[in-house]
Amino acid sequence: MATGPISDTTYQTHRLEVSVDVPFDEFRRRFETAVPAIDDATLDALVGRKADWSEMTTFVDGSAPQGFLRYWTSNPGPLMSLAGDPGECAAYLMGNHIIAERMYRYDPAAMMYAPLRPVISQRDGGPTKFTIERPGAAFASFSDGRIAEVGVELDRKVAALLQHLGAPVPPSLLE
Length: 175
Hints:
alpha+beta; about 15% strand; about 180 residues; five-stranded antiparallel β-sheet
């Protein structure tokens, strides 16, 4: 079997954890309203008929009021409670495939970090927390300034989302 070059990249990630003064269920509701679930039927229809990219852009722009869509949601809390673990958690894949395409064109492997993976959680009796890796750090690891630039744009979009949700904005998202 022939092999090609192997790349081994080490980079530092920045996990951001934002405590909010809102109960878990309320913050989750706010988040899911601000970041709506993608309309899979419409997306599949657009892909199925090989729609023009401008139609896809119109679809996303009209569906993502804060610039992000939810592609997947998981609620592991009830499962973990079977082991006696208290707490709440909702994990998501959120993104914007119009923005993601601007990285994909330079390196499809950028999809390793797109969509983003935010988590809303609350330990028993503790504060509600919004946790996410700073997109700019992950996308900068590709050593392509064009991809890194989109990562910084995503930092700003996450900051705007947190501000919209009434949550504190980590300064590193605005650097």
